Structure formats: C-alpha cells, structure tokens
Amino acid sequence: MDTTLHVKRLDPRAQLPAYQTPGSAAMDLAALLDQPLTLDPGERSFVPTGLAIALPDSGWVALLLPRSGLSIRHGITLSNSVGVIDSDYRGEIRVGLWNTSQAPYTIQPGDRVAQLMVLPVGLAQVVERDELPETQRGAGGFGSTGR
User: Fold this and answer.
1) How high is the mean pLDDT in each 10-residue block of the chain (147 residues)?
2) Which are the contacts of 112, defined by CB distance < 8 A and separation ≥ 6?
3) 9, 42, 79, 135: which could join 14 in a potential S-S bond, CB 3.0 to 4.6 Å?
C-alpha cells in the first residue's frame, strides 16, 4: 500500500507538512503569510499554506483538522470543521480559520494553523433498498443510547 504524499511548494517560503512527534497521526501545516493576520471575534479567513499535494490514488483522502491547542486555548478552529482534500485536487491548500472566541487572535507568518491527516477511503457502492436490516438501535438518533 503506497502512502507516499507528493508535495509541491507553490512558494519557496512554504513549509513542508511535518509530523511533530513519532506518534503523531497528522502533520502540521504552517501559514504562508507576508504579514501577521488578525482574526477578530467571529471573523473567518482563508490562510494560504503555499502547498499543493498529490495523494497516491482515489483510495486516499487528506483531511484538514483543527489544532487542538489553538481551538481550546484561543477559540481558533476550522470554518468548516473538517476540510476534505480529494485525491484529484491539485490546487493550493488553504485553511479556512474561524475565531469563535471573544478576543482578537493574530496569526504570525509560519504559525502552525491546522493538521493534515492522510487516510484510506472506502468507496461505497450505493444500492437503493425499500427496507433496511433491523438493528438493536434502530432509528434512535442523538442521545438515544444514553448519556
């Protein structure tokens, strides 16, 4: 199983994605900014990385995830919760950030702003049915299994 992630710097200043520890499941992505960017409370903005990627094939996806420290300490999270980078996308990875806090937050050039996780994808065959198999849970939705 080929897990090679090909990365192209669209700007020579761009930092390659990097795992921060041997046990990291995702790589950090850094902001490629010419100057600091301040996000006011409730504000959203795209942050460029200066990188494009090529996944091995259609059996792979790259997910953009928030950095937990930014989210918990400063209220900075991804504007779309999780970003999906499909295997055939070759454009720049830009990170949509959202300041959910009550205070302005400034992103400095080179700050790590998101995580990139590469995962295998199970491509499903869609089959329409009049009935679905029964389960113990059934149609029970949010909170139906208890606290």
Assistant:
1) 92 97 96 98 98 95 96 95 95 97 98 97 93 88 73
2) 28, 29, 30, 31, 67
3) 9
Q: 38 by DSSP, 3-state: which?
A: strand
Amino acid at 30: A
> Residue 138 is which amino acid?
G
Contact between 44 and 79 under an 8 Å Cβ cutoff? The reply is: yes
* Cβ contact 30:111 at 8 Å: yes
* HEC letters along 54-113: ECCCCCEEEEEECCHHHHHHHCEEECCCCEEECCCCCCCCEEEEEECCCCCEEECCCCEE
Q: What is the pLDDT of residues 18-33, one digit of tens each?
A: 999 999 999 999 999 9
H/E stretch holding 72: helix 68-74
